[in-house]
Amino acid sequence: MKVEGMNVDRHKAGELWRKYLSHREHMTPADHEIAAIYKRISKGATVIRALESIRNAGLNAEGLPRLAIARADQQLVYFNMRGGGTQVQFSDIRWFQWRRKIALQGKTIEMDWPGIPHFRGTPQATVPLIPVHLRPKRGLQNYHILWEAEWTKRYPVDPYLLRRFGGDAWLVVAAWDLTDVERAVMSQRVRS
Questions:
Q1: 80-99 as b/e: b if 16+ CB within 10 A
Q2: How far, in Å, CA of 67 to CA of 175, rounded?
Q3: Percent of the chain residues past pLDDT 90, beyond the cut
Q4: What are the b/e assignments for 30-41, b being 16+ CB within 10 Å?
Q5: CB-based contacts of 185, cutoff 8 Å, min separation 6
Q6: Which of 1, 120, 142, 153 has the fewest CB atoms below 10 angstroms from its CB?
Q7: SS3 state of residue 184
Q8: Which helix (H) or strand (E) holds 101?
Q9: For the whole model, what pTM was predicted?
Q10: CA distance readout (Å), 173 to 20, 112, 159, 164
Q11: CA–CA separation, 115 vs 88, rounded Å?
């Protein structure tokens, strides 16, 4: 899966992080987010632009996004369109439920996608399993998964576990390929 990385040299990121810290008393919340990103990059972490990656990956043959994103504690994600084809949602509930004002409880990722062709229906995709050795011990709701979406009952293969900094900056916590064993077990647990 091709993702849009934050292309900053580690040493340059370290210099920029120290510059931000030297002005700590004047920093805004956005400055704190930027400093945190520079700090992680300077320590060798990978930071990506997940929403931009979804847009750049484009649509599959059925007109659905090639990539999907969901909170890590979800089992399914629904693809909803809003705003007359200018916004999309990856949510734990269908569009018609959202219209009836059922609480979203923070499980929806909305993003602008101007010019996306309108799609009828509410396709769903299975959110990949996080292998136990990579799964966060607590706070799973604070993480997201980005993966190549299978908008069918097929189980996905190669996800990323992400932690959001803010805006479209996401720390890659883990990346893995699900084995045939994991896919076989989890495909039987997919809800209808």
A1: bbeeeeeebbbbbbbbeebe
A2: 15
A3: 48
A4: eeebbbbbbbbb
A5: none
A6: 120
A7: helix
A8: none
A9: 0.84
A10: 24, 25, 11, 10
A11: 11
For 119-156, b/e burial (b = at least 16 CB within 10 A) is beebbbbbbbbbeeeeebeeeeeebbbbbbbbbeeebb
Structure tokens at 8: 């900053």
Whose CA is closest to 78, among 107, 48, 106? 107
Three-state DSSP class for 170?
strand
Residues in the chain: 192
Tokens 């210099």, located at residue = 15
Q: What residue spans of 84-179 are helical by DSSP H?
A: 95-99
pLDDT classification of 101: cutoffs 50, 70, 90: very low
Calculate the CA dihedral of residues 124, 54, 115, 80 and round it to 10 degrees: 20
Q: What is the pLDDT of residues 39-91, one digit of tens each?
A: 999 999 999 999 999 999 999 998 899 999 999 999 888 888 876 666 788 88
Query: Is-contact 19 27, C-beta < 8 A?
Result: no
C-alpha to C-alpha distance for 46 and 171, rounded to whole angstroms: 6
What whole-number distance in Å separates Cα of residue 70 and Cα of residue 170?
13
List, in sequence order, the alpha helices (H) in the chain.
10-21, 29-42, 50-57, 95-99, 180-187
Where along the chain do its domains lie?
Answer: 4-48, 50-187
Residue type, 117: P
